[in-house]
Amino acid sequence: MTEASSQQTPELWAKQAMELLDKQELPPTPDNFAVFYAYASNSNPNLRMSLETLFQRGEILRQEEVTGLFLTHLSLEAENRILKETTDTIQNEINSVMGALTQTVGETKEYGKTLSTFSGSLEGNVSLDQIRAAVAKVANETRIMAEQNQRLHSQLSLSTQELTEMRYNLDEVRKATLIDPLTNVGNRMYFDTEMVKATAEAVDNDFPLSMLMCDIDFFKKFNDTYGHLVGDEVLKLVAKTLVENLKGRDIIARYGGEEFVILLPQTTLLDAERVGNQLRNTLSTKQVRRRRTNETLGIVTISLGATQYIPGEETDAFIDRADKALYEAKQTGRNKVVGKTST
């Protein structure tokens, strides 16, 4: 792949994006096109770096991988767009309801005038026909007010329902931007957000905070031997095992490819190493099976790097230390946990 030139135009970037989609045998959906257009134009260096890493495998990209890139690197823009559209819709609903309320207030004032007139018309000597006419007018105005109130009630009920649905849809969009679609755990964006919260809590409350960086051993072998579908099942199995064997406050995310990262609030390095070994041992008891034939394909092992947050340090240093510990675990035999206390 060649670097995008500053002399290139949006038309050329779009053409390159379509050529890449065709080469990768991917449909030209808006999300897919956005990923490859950003790559061609080099408008998102992090996305470009991630895509380059995938290209280096020399394999056709899977739709799940491209979707993951979109959610991680570009979906914030999509979320902002949807947020604006939803906000505009909500404002329109509010304007509609306020208009109905204003109209009802005006009609209520008119109804009050009718009642005052009716009261005045009964003073003094009045004929039976005058009383009948006044009563008929009040009855008619009362019927009109009842109809108006019923319409207002129906409109308010409908608006409440629509606003509730929009809030639910917006929550779902936000959730989707933070979840890895294959493994159903947090994605990189989710991890980055939670990292900020977790480190701030650790500093504010003087709590320990540890991290486990996890990598599936010989994952490429599973893919090469049994295909991507089996590889996907391995990723799902690992994610499911992590979720089932960690506490509710622990933060789990797919960091990229076959790597997962776990933040352990209120946990020391020593305890993090214990947790890592428990996860490793639990996973080693599970068999990988081919769904179609129920054939047993063996067990999965993982290597883990553990480290504890040093108050005041940059989060990049925290992550880098865990990554180096993971690298050491892989280089010294795999299927083990290595703890690292400093860079």
Task: Describe this structure as you would to a colleague.
The two termini are 34 Å apart. The chain has a 5-stranded mixed beta sheet, sandwiched between helices. Helix 2 crosses helix 4. The N terminus is likely disordered. The chain contains 10 helices and 7 strands. It is extended. By secondary structure, the protein is of the alpha+beta class.
Concise account of the structure shown:
By secondary structure, the protein is α+β, with helices and mostly antiparallel strands.
Helix proportion of residues, in percent? 55-70%
Radius of gyration: 31 Å
Query: What does the largest sheet look like?
Result: 5 strands, mixed
Going by helix content, strand content and strand pairing, the class is: alpha+beta
The geometry reads as: extended
How much is the average pLDDT?
Answer: 78
Task: Bin the strand percentage.
Answer: 5-15%
Strand order of the largest sheet: 2-3-1-6-7
What attributes characterize this protein structure?
343 residues; alpha+beta; two-stranded antiparallel ribbon; 10 helices; 64% helix; disordered N terminus
